[in-house]
Amino acid sequence: MKHAIYPGSFDPVTYGHIDIIKRAAKMFDDLTVCVLDNKAKTPLFSVDERVKMLRKVSENIPNVHVDSYYGLLMDYARKIDCHIAVRGLRAVTDFEYELQIAHANRTISGGWLDTIFITSSMEYAYLSSSVVKEIASFGGDITLCVPPVIEEEVIAKMRVLHPEFYSNK
Ligand code: ADP
How far is the CA of 167 from the centre of ligand 1 (A)? Predict the structure, then answer.
């Protein structure tokens, strides 16, 4: 039985992440999407909110499960006895960072945790959670970036944080 973890911040989940989830779910018997609670970042959504949103967008894919973890990916991987991590690659700029993280995970886990990369679909190569938040913070249209259920959640946050851009919407 092949099991993989797709770790990330998912703040919020975008069509780019969903594309990777769908494709990885076809490659593995089981895919655990894990929200890593990274204290170094100030997220827009709480871990619980991100988990709920991921569950909503993956509810029709039976072999996908959503979880969260505070700690090293390697420790989570050991906890659930899974030795493959999936990461998405959009551009060369992702590669350098991702390569370093993949090497680090493999080294500190004593060769136990391997990373495989799935290249982004062309139409989502520009897309990141940060881009979504940037566009929405100025009242811009994010319908091409996230599904409607996620758009609602992002707009609800932005109405509070940036009311000046949402007063007539
Ligand atoms: P992190 O903070 O761990 O980088 P993200 O939520 O930004 O978490 O991304 C999680 C993973 O999804 C990363 O491997 C990232 O490269 C990948 N990813 C993000 N956006 C896209 C996209 N548009 N297409 C493909 N992969 C993506």
Answer: 32
pLDDT digit string (tens) for 77-110? 999 999 999 999 998 888 999 999 999 999 999 9
Residue with tokens 């109405």: 159
Distance (Å, whole) CA 108 – CA 147: 37
Is 52 inside a domain boundary? yes
Q: Which residues contact 86 (CB under 8 A, 6 or more apart)?
A: 4, 5, 6, 20, 24, 31, 115, 116, 117, 118
Catalytic (active-site) positions = 17, 41, 90, 129
Domain containing 81 equals 3-125
pLDDT digits (tens, 9 = 90+) for 21-36: 999 999 999 999 999 9
Question: 75: CA distance to ligand 1 center in Å?
Answer: 20
Give, for ligand 1, the residue of 6, 22, 128, 129 to mutate: max count of ligand atoms closer than 8 Å to Cβ. Answer: 128
Residue pointed to by tokens 């990916």: 73
For the chain, the domain total comes to 1
